[in-house]
């Protein structure tokens, strides 16, 4: 350090005559700092016990005052002195040496303040950005005692970059090298030959943005050499892991500033020429791997939304369970990435989302979902369900859907070999031997259907319904084979009458002796209508931009109806609803919840297939209504075998509502299934009611083949 100062002092003393006393004062303070290193004999004396902090403050005040006296294109003599004599470089060296003890803290504060208080662009000047780069490399070191000052310094840099995006490539230290078949030694020679820029006597003009990710050699080969692990982005990601919440939050805010730069060149630079995406996803994988293997699925399902900016403000008592801290850290980071994806330009968001897909979803999560351990499958499916519920950014939603369902668009075949392994297994898990796995996987699909991504519904259902191969095509074009034959129904009744008929078909489906809602207060149909109206409006708003036709597609005689298959997803749901009388109560609730969600979508084919009791089905085809009719037929037979059926049914219903205590009633599973069946039919009737009147009044949904 002393040798460095001796080389600088002669220049400091011999500098030209100042135009104002400010320069004399500025040089005097700098000489006071340098003289300390020459004269002091106590190397253990902390910097706070010296006059160095005071002198640095005086120098800063002089620079700020001087700038205020200068015009926009002028540079004052004090700033000229600071640049010409590389004062920032020297301070950076002194900070690295930590001499006197605590000097690094003072240097960080000085750099931060000069970048905040000096208004003119500085970061493109070599004698500014070179020491800034060096100081960045001193941040984030193991055992650092200055994390607070470090992260503030880095935040200031990112703020300046946000104001002047063209300086990004100066700060990131991106080296662009031409690569062909040259050896690495040639690259080293090229680096050594690179000369230093000279410092101009005034601020140089702001250069145009130039941050090309690669430069191509004459042979066409190219490569990007990322900076060492001490570059700005590495350090920010490292500090985002800090145990000090404020430090971690400030580091994330800095990363957001960089990622949200609107310039396409800046986004391309960050995406292609830096390890930003890679490091962010590595952290996600790291946090996911730290989650305990034996998490309680119930705790996962009830886990609240975590905000990345303050993950530990939740009620610690209510959310304290084994693994809760790990879950908070993981979901906070996922929320941060989701927020960053919403803020980032498309080119960067796409790159990060793909990195998440390839390295985390495929590399880490998929093996966990396909493992043999039922507990492992259950926990990871519950975590995935929570992730899908929380994620909002379009880019990440798209990658999640592609990961889970794939890209297939052709109609499914009953015996078709599933090309997307994960999709196949997840759908099969909806009918798993473990009821818990089935419930959790069904919940996952329900969360997927709530996302504003049209390909989800197309993949799961619409691609198999779009040609209406489930409808019998008659030569006259009339489709009039109904489950409930009405001799007076001629197909020409107005829309309101048709709506009433459809609603009543569902309301009258369950026989009177199997109904209990009239025996319990607050279990009427009106509540379902209110809820369905609200949900249908939300669903319509969700799908408004999806360009769905409002008219049923004509059936085509050229398409063989024998080819109809509802698809693996609807098949599993229909199979499950067909076993509603013998399945656990919680499982039945989840199956009906998914089907109700599907029925809410304002798509003509889906509406017809799920909510129209009067469609004429081709042989072997099922609709939701036809499945329910078979269940009712089975119920009618089983009612005859249970004494005091209605009395027991009412008692079980009151038990479910918490009005009666537990008793030893037999056939509980059946009775609970009947209750769910009744409520499901009321829910479907309510959905049909809120959808059909407005649709039929506008004549949009009338069957184009109806005579």
Automatic annotation (TrEMBL):
UniProt domain FHF complex subunit HOOK-interacting protein C-terminal: residue ranges: 566-658
PANTHER family: FHF COMPLEX SUBUNIT HOOK-INTERACTING PROTEIN 2B, RAI16 PROTEIN-RELATED
Annotated family: Belongs to the FHIP family.
Protein's name according to its UniProt entry: FHF complex subunit HOOK-interacting protein C-terminal domain-containing protein
Disordered as annotated region, ranges: 182-204
Alphabetical list of Pfam families matching this protein: DUF5917, KELAA, RAI16-like
